[in-house]
């Protein structure tokens, strides 16, 4: 699959001396990593070469408080307001579509691409954000780039690329009750390590992967970068096509059938050769939680904290040999491009329904997009969260990256459905415990690290 | 971009593995629209305590780290976020090269785009460099060699195109624009699936 997509987009093939020129079908961009790229275009007198193939939105720095988004009070963080205004200006000036602050289609860039049907099988997709790997769930070659390369794509709709190697991760068997896609991908990262995918594109295969919904597949591909991989991919199949049918930017009617035929051609070749292969037994995966300061430092939730990561454990205020189960936490964050889609919110609400958030605990629920928010509200999930005592916010990256002021306090433990537990990621001195939506919701109820299976009916 | 041929400098050493770009450039500084002036933000949470006072024990705060142009770091340096601000902050702080046994992909690319040379060396040479902070060494981009003080030489692989761009200060965007008309097939055939 990787090979087919690569070849279909090679404008100039690579040689020993020069990288390939790779055509980019879809470029997604946001307020944080684009200003300097637009500045480069301005200083060199360049235009955006294919404005129709770039879509901009606001997600990283935007407030999640309703009054700040829809008016009433100004955006509290002045630098964020300036960044937002700058993208609005750049989009106007360069003729790029912007799903702006009050647009009903706005959201985290990796949630709205698939939701709007912008993401389609066989495409090359880039964005100035490392979690662009998410889109690989649709059988695309999708990867994060830096700001200089954002400028390259704006100016040329192409990138200079060396062909990466390939890694097949085959997952067979059934996931146990209470175990989800997040647990699976955390287990994979724990197994191959945070550099285990370096300079490789991962293709996830096997009966377990085939059985995942599109939203679950996105969770898996999303965290490929946490294993250091260039990208993660899953071959498109009937699940993919069913998800895409009827989406606003997807062809309709007979054109859809023709598109499906074309997309099918990108599906994996059973005889494809990979540079490396890893097999995972799904039945052995348990609810996972991180204990350290990178996503490779994970363990089954009932385990004792392993020895050997002294510096990380010092930051985390944890001791090797002790359990995490039962440890008091101060904040729960349910959100991010990893786990803020409708199925994630349903799973978390399933645990919180009819229960109360533990006393003194702060629980922040941030939908991945305005459309996810609206769909959740249509089925009453907002009321479940609010009645339990959680906060229900407007969409954005929020406490996953903490740029917009949504942060925890030094020393606090946060059970978080996001993707990174790096030092300071959710605020200076904050200690992040990565977990699934049901594990986060279970912690919200008890105020402690809790095995979600204890609360699932 | 200025050509980069030879870098001769003392080293500063951060031996930790998996140093992520959130450490190199904390996220709270990302609401900037500027392309430079990031030296004060480099490793901000490792360099300064909560009150903003420098932590004297941190390697880059020691007097001998002043003026070092080469950073030696643990494996998988620059993992995590794609923020190019990490490479910009190192550049703005006077660093011209980073040496490790492995360097994360996106950071590696970002570094090259800014004339910051990412150097992957063998474990033995890396162990020596880590154990000898402040060593005066030489990175020869053309030869792909790191020359250590006692005459030992560690070779490193650098993509021929990247090396050419470094040695001649070539701007990749200019090159990319020049290559587009040469496509073996018309570009529109590749655009829009």
What this model shows, in words?
The complex is a heterodimer of chains A (457) and B (193). Chain A is an alpha/beta fold and 457 residues long. Helices cover 32% and strands 17% of the residues of chain A. Chain A contains 16 helices and 19 strands. The longest helix of chain A is centred in the N-terminal third of the chain and has 17 residues, at 78-94. In chain B, strand 3 (97-100), helix 4 and strand 4 form a beta-alpha-beta unit. Chain B has one domain: Alpha-Beta Barrel (Aconitase, domain 4). Classes of the chains: A alpha/beta (457), B alpha/beta (193).
CATH top level of chain B?
A: Alpha Beta
Shape of chain A: globular
Most residues in contact: chain pair: A-B, 74 and 53 residues
- Fraction of residues in β-strands of chain A: 15-25%
How many domains in all of chain A? 3
- Summarize the amount of helix of chain B as a percent range: 25-40%
- Based on the structure given, which CATH architecture of chain B is correct? Alpha-Beta Barrel
Specify the CATH class of the largest domain in chain A: Alpha Beta
- What's the tally of helices of chain B? 7
Taking strands numbered 1, 2, ... along the chain, how are they ordered across the largest sheet of chain A?
5-4-3-6-7
Uncertain spans of chain B, ≥5 residues at pLDDT below 50? none
N- to C-terminal separation of chain A? Answer: 40 Å
**How many individual domains of chain B?**
1
